[in-house]
Amino acid sequence: MRSQTVKFSNRNQSQFFPVLRQRVDQYFQQKTISKLGNQSLVWKGLTMLSLLLVPYGLILSNQFSPWICLGLAIIMGLGTAGVGMAVMHDANHGSFSRIPWINAFFSATLYLLGGNVLNWKIQHNTLHHTYTNIHEVDEDITGKFLLRLSHGDPHWKIHRYQHIYAFFLYGLMTLSFLVKDFRQAYRYTRHKGSKLIKPFSKLDIGILLLSKVVYGVFIALLPLLMTDLSFGQWLLGFLVMHLTAGLILSTIFQLAHVVEGAEQPAPDTEGMITTAWAIHQLQTTANFRCPVALSWFIGGLDFQVEHHLFPTISHVHYRALSHIVQQTAQEYALPYNRKESFFYAIRSHIRMLKVLGTRV
């Protein structure tokens, strides 16, 4: 990890971001609204949590057949993905609410997914959002099991088939939390000399361990003790829930950065990226058009360009801001990468998987 050595150049850059930031500020001033989430976001958060917890409660009631419980596990997977994209994502960026305890509450819903808040904030908020698509720094594209998502990763023969098996591996995303969080905590603590990465304290390690135990009780022990499900039936439901959630979450995130037109710039020998940070975000990030209902469910992540430029603004505002961002980018002759549909974005991602799988 070399995050402390990568810098962005501010020399000879346009006034794109100062102008854009001024226009965005004017939008909120004219509308007299907060940049944070509103009441509708709180209701969305409660809805997504219900999508996860109500099926869980029905399973624990022990009133349904194993096949119905399997269907409920799929709904739990949808709820897990919904919480991840539309609830905890905003909350961990500090954009869910202006009320601290509400933000902290919805931020902690990540524990219901089996994840860890501090790990997420380091990997996602700090490393991914600062060093988007930079090899060895952005962990979202670097060093993935059997996947080559970065031109900087080693090329193996099996990668030529990754466009076929990638989506199965994407389903393992939330399952990986159960192991990955411990590896990340160890790695981040080793890099405590970095100004960007906060090392895990004894309290943080205690929270990590306790949260995994509580998650094990929540997701495994209680269903096995309170229902007539066999271990095999429970295991099938557990895997189906995680595969559903992981497939949705990973796919949506991949459509933002591993598609055609999303660059993977490499720092020069002095660790310098030759563009300013905001322009780097435009070059490495993509939007995709999708139905309003899908956009609602995925937490506005179809507007990833706006999210990367303004991560502390709630996603409920991104659709309106997208017109301002696109217009300003065009004025400064800068890219604004948007795929014309969700399925076009999927095809673009598959084509990129093929390129990365065959081109060394």
Characterize the structure shown.
The protein has 360 residues and is mostly helical. It has one domain (3-358). The protein contains 15 helices and 4 strands. The chain has helices at residues 16-31, 39-60, 66-86, 88-92, 100-107, 117-130, 162-170, 173-190, 202-226, 231-257, 277-284, 292-297, 304-309, 318-331, 342-358, and strands at 7-8, 272-273, 287-288, 338-339. It has a two-stranded parallel sheet with strand order 1-2. It has a two-stranded parallel ribbon with strand order 3-4. α3 packs parallel to α10 and α7 crosses α10. The longest helix is centred in the last third of the chain and has 27 residues, at 231-257. It is globular. The mean pLDDT is 93. Residues 66-338 form the Fatty acid desaturase domain. GO terms for molecular function: oxidoreductase activity, acting on paired donors, with oxidation of a pair of donors resulting in the reduction of molecular oxygen to two molecules of water. This is Linoleoyl-CoA desaturase. Pfam families: FA_desaturase. Keywords: Membrane, Transmembrane, Transmembrane helix.
Q: Order of strands across the widest beta sheet?
A: 1-2
> Biggest β-sheet: count, sense, barrel?
2 strands, parallel
- The number of helical segments is 15
Give the H and E element order.
Answer: EHHHHHHHHHHEHEHHHEH
How many domains, in number, for the residues? 1
Radius of gyration: 21 Å
Mean pLDDT: 93
Low-confidence stretches: none
Oligomer kind: single chain
Q: Determine the structural class based on helices, strands and strand pairing.
A: mainly alpha
Q: Characterize the overall form.
A: globular
Helical content (DSSP H or I, runs of 4+): 55-70%
Report the portion of residues in β strands: under 5%
Number of distinct beta strands: 4
Distance between the termini: 22 Å
